[in-house]
Amino acid sequence: xxxxxxxxxxxxxxxxxxxxxxxxxxKYVSPELIEKIxxxxxxxxxxxxxxxxxxxxxxxxRIGLIVPDITNPFFGEIVKYAxxxxxxxxxxxxxxxxxxSIEKERxxxxxxxxxxxxxIINVAPRMKDRELNKKxxxxxxxxxxxxxETEKDIAFVFADNYEGGSRVAKRFIDQGFKKFLxxxxxxxxxxxxxxxxxxxQEYVLDQGFTDSDVxxxxxxxxxxxxxxxxxxxxxxxxxxxxxxxxxSSDIMAWGAIEAITDMGLRVxxxxxxxxxDNIFFSNFIHPRLTTIDNPTKQLGAMSTQxxxxxxxxxxSLKGNYVVLNSKLVERQSDERLxx
Amino acid sequence: xxxxxxxxxxxxxxxxxxxxxxxxxxKYVSPELIEKIxxxxxxxxxxxxxxxxxxxxxxxxRIGLIVPDITNPFFGEIVKYAxxxxxxxxxxxxxxxxxxSIEKERxxxxxxxxxxxxxIINVAPRMKDRELNKKxxxxxxxxxxxxxETEKDIAFVFADNYEGGSRVAKRFIDQGFKKFLxxxxxxxxxxxxxxxxxxxQEYVLDQGFTDSDVxxxxxxxxxxxxxxxxxxxxxxxxxxxxxxxxxSSDIMAWGAIEAITDMGLRVxxxxxxxxxDNIFFSNFIHPRLTTIDNPTKQLGAMSTQxxxxxxxxxxSLKGNYVVLNSKLVERQSDERLxx
DNA sequence: CTGAAAGCGCTAACAT
DNA sequence: ATGTTAGCGCTTTCAG
Lengths: 339, 339
Description:
2 copies of one chain form a homodimer. By secondary structure, chain A is of the alpha/beta class. Helix content of chain A is 43%, strand content 17%. Chain A folds into 3 domains: 5-48, lambda repressor-like DNA-binding domains (434 Repressor (Amino-terminal Domain), Orthogonal Bundle); 60-159 and 296-324, Rossmann fold, CATH 3.40.50; 161-294, Rossmann fold (3-Layer(aba) Sandwich). The first copy, chain A, has helices at residues 5-12, 16-24, 31-44, 50-57, 73-88, 102-114, 129-132, 161-175, 191-206, 223-235, 250-262, 296-313, and strands at residues 62-67, 92-97, 119-123, 140-143, 154-159, 179-184, 214-218, 243-247, 271-274, 291-293, 320-324, 327-329.
């Protein structure tokens, strides 16, 4: 059996209160007793029972983390950095994968609360704003999704996908492109897909181009979708000049590039493409993919820092939102070439 | 404040014991009382305090999961399936990323115990057998690493990497290849890298080939390493026939293929290659990569099932190990062509 | 500066 | 069939 504080107290010949005091360091204890107690703890291989402490102080030192798919390195990285800062402050992460299911997400939140987490980090939630906004006994920070108005103890940390989209547009336009194609993601389900599109579109329009200069194709964020949609598009494509394609996820962009190649066209000579996400492999495909780098580390680190501060300081998360910048990673897939 | 069992008891006009009995369902309670109590719980929005229960029953219903790098989809998938089975049995996963650091791994195990997890799943541990084998108050299952002799409460679940390696060899030989090249991984650090190599090597030798028929190059599991090592090798390479290269990780294989292409040779015409891991992208590179598929889902699911059974049934994990089979995924990179 | 004791919310043995 | 109560291991007043 694991040694308890009582065992230590007995062995050291003191009261449990004194032992507790050396553990928590909240009260002065004489050096001699500290010495004696420390020795006793070592001898008994004592380690404080966090569960008992949690019950007493009404804090679990655990935060619940929800991700849509832990298999996705984007979320993996968020988790990694969330864990880093949590551990540094002696908190632990309990992780749940919602499998992109809204029901699971709801259930997870409930069991998190039941399990006494001190706070919740919800990454790329599927739940709607209204539901997210319901009263809850613990603070929550929402990651990778635009903020909404709230009076609750909720904060937001997300990358500015609108800005990301417009960076792409700027890049294309600065290089002199005149005709644009957008492979947009699942705009209705994923708020960020919409933001990316809007950022791109509005920038282009702002620069004096018209709707007829930018074509739009919708598909989901997969390799296959990128491939198929692009291929279909190229079936009856009349090329007049170098086209600039904004494909709003790298993996989709990869598929699109394959399609372009399979159709006998070249990237970037015939069609320049810029992706989004800067996944690991975007640096290795041909041509190396110009893309937008997401601030994943900061997404993970800042969200949990915010949450922890709120937990410790008891200050409200309300109205707190941090928007992170993305940056363009210039590689070869978007080179402007004479046509 | 969250409602307690007392509040419910008072509102329903019963004792806390009765409320507890309807929660745990371990004793008969009359239908009328159940009804009344259920209503009271609902009214108070009662949810049982897991921490208090844990303290009482000396079980946390949490299991600690250690992975070397949550950013790696291979581990991500293990985590995903571990979590699925854990949740199904009302357990939760607390996740820690060891960052491939042996010190962190040690520390994590300690804090897991301190935090009262009911069991530990250690994926691809860096710690040595001897240390892993030390006495611990909770059961542990070790995933993705060969078993060792033990008297402790430890089980193993891992893929048979030796078999995987020999499958590759068999495939090459069945197709008629005569000359072999191995890009082996970090054999000294990663036991599975060694197994892969041994499986390959011994099969080849078994078939009557000699050491001079198989060349060996060592490097770590990265794209860059695969590229560099292969490129260097090709610098003074005298081609006599179609070479069969076993590159023991897909990402390394990708790098190697790039190098081959950059050096003006073709895959598989000049050099056939088979990778290992079946990462998502191996299906999309050119040529599509023949590789070994790891049983990641089972790795995750079976290990936690085993652990949970041990926790619930109090039966020992001792001597329990399950070895999973890998399978060859046949694609185009290893085609045998007339030279 | 140290100790005695109450009590966090729950379960389970025991009593009724 | 239901209620009373001790106690899980710890922290924290409150006394001394």
